[in-house]
Structures are given as structure tokens and as C-alpha cells.
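Hi there. Long-time user, first ticket. I'm pasting a complex I've been working with (about 347 residues overall). I'd like to know whether the download I got is complete or cut off, because the file seemed smaller than I expected. Thanks.
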Amino acid sequence: MSNYVELPIVGIFITLMGFYASRQLIKKYSFLSSGLVLWTVLFILGTLYVLDINFDAYWNGGSWVSMLLGPSVIALGVSLYEHSNKLWKQLKPFLISVVTGGIIGIVSVVLLLLQFKVQPEIIKSIAPKSITSPIAIEVAQSIKGIPEVTAGIVIFTGILGSVFGPVFLKIIGNKNNSAMGVALGTTAHGIGTAKAYELSNVSGVYGGLAMCVNGVISAVMIPYIVELMM
Amino acid sequence: MENKNKLISVILIILFLLLGELVKMVFNLPIPGSIIGMVLIFMVLKLKWIRLEQVKPTSDFLLKYLSLFYVPYGVGLVTQYKFLNGKLTEIIIALVLSTFLAMYITMKLFKVFEKNE
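Hi, the file is complete. Here it is re-exported in full:
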């Protein structure tokens, strides 16, 4: 039986069922709609617990699903081209807000963690929290953080930003779709971008570009910021 | 015609991912291959070497289900608990404050400078 659940197809099936169930849930209860990734994760964790499947067995199939992240980044490039006319017109507000927001995100989290006396190794692992996971993991390695922790923190930040971000921005009075996308992509990378695509195509495009620009700029800045502050 | 473009679009998307990984390896860059591939496909579309219709079927499909592809990493998060033990509350507070501060400033700056254009 344990060999059976280790088949990749089991992990793939559980992932797809969780995603389907969450989409159905959201269709019925629209107030839950910001938590698509979160509900899917909880559904899968519940299923793994009930069926007594460990994470490594699940990952045999889960890694197949996540393998599509690479091609999705290429797809973002296509989407950016499709909407690039809009972006060139707003290049200045875009670059100023993404670069400033990205740096404030890094500096503020490092300051707070120093204040809370968290170990330097963990602080270095958390500093890249808002960068898209493939870049974040490489940054963590280069500044001697723990890549596994970084992977977890990046996903947590993405879920945090995508679940509460749209509500937060609406409460403080934002009705601008492009500003929503830029803020979600800069702070919550790909998960924020996926959320932005659910909200509107314009938000998604801005989110995708913000994620890419923030990823590259933060990757260059973080080693210097961390050295200066710690 | 429709089906022909579908197959070509899958091939092109994978081709640019491969090219990105190749550029990363050859020049030993710290940036992920997928990001390089993204820039490359953007440039090639801009130069009109390939047409949007040749890649759009697959790229639209991938973006529609982008959330799904992150899910397994989200499940993996629970296996990382042991590293954060002891300071978990402080770390969550720091993440929440920092994320929403950055989100607010990004949104505000974009709107302010958008108006000034």
C-alpha cells in the first residue's frame, strides 16, 4: 500500500482534486475567494493526514504540478508583450513604486527581526521573502541563509499577501486595478500575481511585471542591504 | 489551423525555457533561467520574429492555472516548522507588518506618480 501512494499520479490527483474542491467552494461562497491557494493547501494537508501519506510521497506527484512554474514564467513574458503598450506609458510610476516598495519590504523585515533578536541565519533566510521563489532560493544561498526556510517563508508571504492584500488595499481606498497589481506583484510575487489575474487581466499583467522587476532588482540589492544592516 | 497553433505554442514555450537555462549556464548568471527566457520571448515577440498567436494558446492556459502550480510548495511549508521554532510569533508579526507596509507604499507611490505623468 505504501508503494501505491508513492506513485506520482497519487500526488497529482490529490492536488487537482484539492484545487477543484476549492474552486467549487469559492463559487458557492464568494467571500472565501481570496484564499484559493490557502484552501487548496488545507484540503491537501487534510487528505494527506486522513490517508496517512507523508510529504515525501506526496512530493513525488506534487513536483510534477510545480514543474509547470518554469513554463508559466515564460507565459508571463508573452502576457507582458500583449499589454506592453500600456506599460511603456507608465514606466516612471511603475519603476519608482516597485523599486521603493521592494527595498522597504526588505529593510523593514530585517529591522523588525533584529529588534526581536532572531538568529542572523534565520534573518538572512527571511530577507528575500517577497522575491519569486526560484530567485529567492538562489539569493538565500548566496548570503548564507537556509534555502529550505526561504522557500517556506516565500510561500507564506505570498499566501499572506494574496489572501489579505486585496481586502487591505480596498479598505484603505484603492480602486485602481493597475496599482493593485503592482502592489501584489511587488510584495507577494507569483502568488500575488496569480491572485491579481483572478481579479482582472490588467492587475495580473502589472503584477507579473512587478514580480519580475522586483525579483531582479532585489536579488542585486539584498546582499548589500543585509551586509549594511547586520 | 487552431490545433496546429496549439502544438507549436507548447513547443515554443518550452524552447524559450530551454534557451533561458542555456544562457544562464553559459554565462554563469545568478538569475533563474525562466526569468531570462521570459525576457527573451518578450524581445522576440517585440522584434516580430514570432507572432502572438503562435504562443498564446499555451501561455493563456498556464496563466489561467498559475495558482495551482504553487500549491505543492504551500503544502511543503508545514515541513519547515522546526527551523522557526521559538520565534514563530515574532517572525509572523515581522512578516505581516513588513508585507503590508511595502504593499501600501508601492500602491501609494504608483498612484501619486501616475497622476503626475
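A couple of notes from our side: Helices of chain B lie at 2-27, 33-46, 56-64, 66-76, 81-84, 88-116. Residues 88-116 of chain B form the longest helix (29 residues).
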